[in-house]
Amino acid sequence: MKILVTGAGGFIGGHLTKQLAALGHEVIAVDMKPTKDWYQLVGKVANHTADLSLLENAYLYSKGVSQIYNLAADMGGMGFIENNKAKCMESVLINTHLLQAARRNGVEKFFFASSACVYASFHQDTLDISPLKESDAYPADPEDGYGWEKLFSERMCRHFQEDFGIQTRVARYHNVYGPKGTYAGGREKVPAAACRKIIEAVKTGNYEINIWGDGQQLRSFTYITDCIEGTIKLMNSDYALPLNIGSSEMISINELYKATIEVVGLPYEKFKFTYDLKAPQGVRGRSSENSECRKVLSWEPNIEFKVGIKETFDWIAKELNY
């Protein structure tokens, strides 16, 4: 079928575009960045640079498509999210205009990439936490800026389905990582940042690494191939409510660094860690509760962190000539 992927020049969007093309679909790939800055350029795909926060562009690129996967957003890791709340909120224009365009152009299915940042902060303020169920998004108290935009856009999808009959699907991603993503510049997330810092430490001979927060923060990290598989499964399902797409394997940031160092064969005892307690560090604990995912999709993310981080490290190492 003919499919529009927005945010196709980004990390997840690039991997999704590649997989949909491999499955034989006709893919229209759109991103705001010039194509030279895309993380992946997929062959036999129509690649376009356009700002989809503009209604006329949303109308133009959604004409004649059967499905829209909306992954377009201005976002990054915790450092970017905490310091760019207004920019993150502006992404609501993309989803709103794409939904309007989908209605006008008769698009059958619409996917929105949401985030675990929609979950209420009072469920995540200690290390003694329970995995987050889909119902834990309400009463609403999401991540300021980015989380509010995602939660609002989820509601937009719900009401466009109720009022106009567009089949909407919403995935709440949990810390997606892997090769061909951002690893420097301020928008990178923890796994990629850890890989880069470890490589830089070895190359410079300075084995001191600074960690944001106290390193005890708990997270689950979802490898990119699990993310893509879950996304396509959800889109092809009949499930119309927001659904967790995230690993249930929870580790601390300290454990993340230790696992990464050891899995790539480096001596952990050579590294020294310092902690910046004033740096952005997000919630204390967060992981994905997957009973609904298993029920709906007969599947859940299953790639262990030690496997995914080795693939990620190897790719970043090549990028940095390590």
Write a structural description.
By secondary structure, the chain is α/β, with parallel strands linked by helices. It is built from eleven helices and 13 strands. It has helices spanning 11-22, 55-62, 78-83, 85-90, 92-105, 146-164, 190-204, 224-235, 253-263, 291-297, 305-319, and strands at residues 2-6, 26-31, 46-49, 67-70, 109-115, 167-173, 176-177, 208-212, 218-220, 222-223, 243-245, 250-252, 272-276. α2 (55-62) crosses α5. The longest helix has 19 residues, at 146-164.
Write the layout of secondary structure elements.
Elements: E1 2-6, H1 11-22, E2 26-31, E3 46-49, H2 55-62, E4 67-70, H3 78-83, H4 85-90, H5 92-105, E5 109-115, H6 146-164, E6 167-173, E7 176-177, H7 190-204, E8 208-212, E9 218-220, E10 222-223, H8 224-235, E11 243-245, E12 250-252, H9 253-263, E13 272-276, H10 291-297, H11 305-319
Parallel strand pairs: 1-2, 1-4, 2-3, 4-5, 5-6, 6-11, 7-10, 8-13
Antiparallel strand pairs: 9-12
Helix pairs in contact: 1-8, 2-5, 5-6, 7-9, 7-11
Short description:
This protein has 322 residues and is α/β, with parallel strands linked by helices. The protein has helices at residues 11-22, 55-62, 78-83, 85-90, 92-105, 146-164, 190-204, 224-235, 253-263, 291-297, 305-319; strands at residues 2-6, 26-31, 46-49, 67-70, 109-115, 167-173, 176-177, 208-212, 218-220, 222-223, 243-245, 250-252, 272-276.
